[in-house]
Amino acid sequence: MLTDAQIAAFIADGFVKIEGAFSAETAAAGREILWRATGCDPDDPSTWTAPVIRLWDHAEEPFAAAVTAPVLLEAFDQLVGPGRWLPRRSLGSWPVRFPSPEPPGDTGWHVDVSFPGDAKPDDYLSWRVNVFSQGRALLMLFLFSDVEAGDAPTKIRVGSHLRLARELEQFGEAGTTMFDLADFYTATGDLPEALATGRAGDVYLCHPFLIHSAQPNLAGRPKFMAQPPLLSRQPCVLDRPDGAYSPVEQAIRQGLGLTAAR
User: Fold this and answer.
1) Which candidate in 69, 192, 205, 224 could, as Cys together with 144 as Cys, close a disulfide (CB 3.0–4.6 Å)?
2) Do you know which Gene3D superfamilies this protein is assigned to (predicted)?
3) pLDDT tens for each residue of 8-67
4) How many CB atoms are located within 10 Å of the residue 149 CB?
């Protein structure tokens, strides 16, 4: 179980790292599947010809085992609330990052959007995010390879989720797109940064409003990391008569300047 200190850090910083959430053996089995899917040879760097290869959803046994690890299911209940999130058996998309001098073309600070609004469901670039985090309970980073500072770890702006809550309030239920928040990303440049480093089997559970960025892998090892959302059963409720706010909701309320509970 997450400790009170870990939950408090999640509310304040926007993320918590769970070390060894799933086994190194599970991670290795997953990498074997992913290497085959890339079409590259793990023992021949001459076959690593692209800076990033995107793989789509994988639900084979290692990935299902990782996302249903008991420690994670318990953490989902603690951070989002029992019955407020949707179980999953797969790990979404995989931006596999190879060492390369070529720019990958997908870096830049952003928040992950979570619902289509009036856009077509497959037009992800037009999706939206609102102050109630409709559709998304958590952003998750599953490390399937060891990731050190030189291996293109995801960059995190610590505490940015609190500021984004205030920014999103003006847009109401309709929300806004990730591109319309470009000036906001620039304005968070004063915040401290953290790197999502760790061992294969570690998982970062992040507030859905956390601002983050990929970075190029210039000289490190191939990086295997999944970044699926934990989907929510309903939008966050920011005015609960019983005051039973989840840590995700508590953080949004804190960002809006509201008290933790009534």
Assistant:
1) 224
2) q2cbj1_9rhob like domain
3) 999 999 999 999 999 999 999 999 999 999 999 999 999 999 999 999 999 999 999 999
4) 9
* Strand intervals (E) in 5-146: 15-18, 52-55, 94-97, 136-143
Domain assignments of the chain as residue spans, ordered by start: 4-255
Bridge-partner residues for 94, per DSSP? 55
**Ramachandran category for residue 78: left, alpha or beta (phi over 0 → left; psi -120 to 50 → alpha):** alpha
pLDDT of residue 81: 97
C-alpha to C-alpha distance for 249 and 229, rounded to whole angstroms: 17
- Specify the CATH number of the domain 4-255: 2.60.120.620
Instruction: Find, among 139, 125, 103, the residue nearest to 218 by Cα.
Output: 103
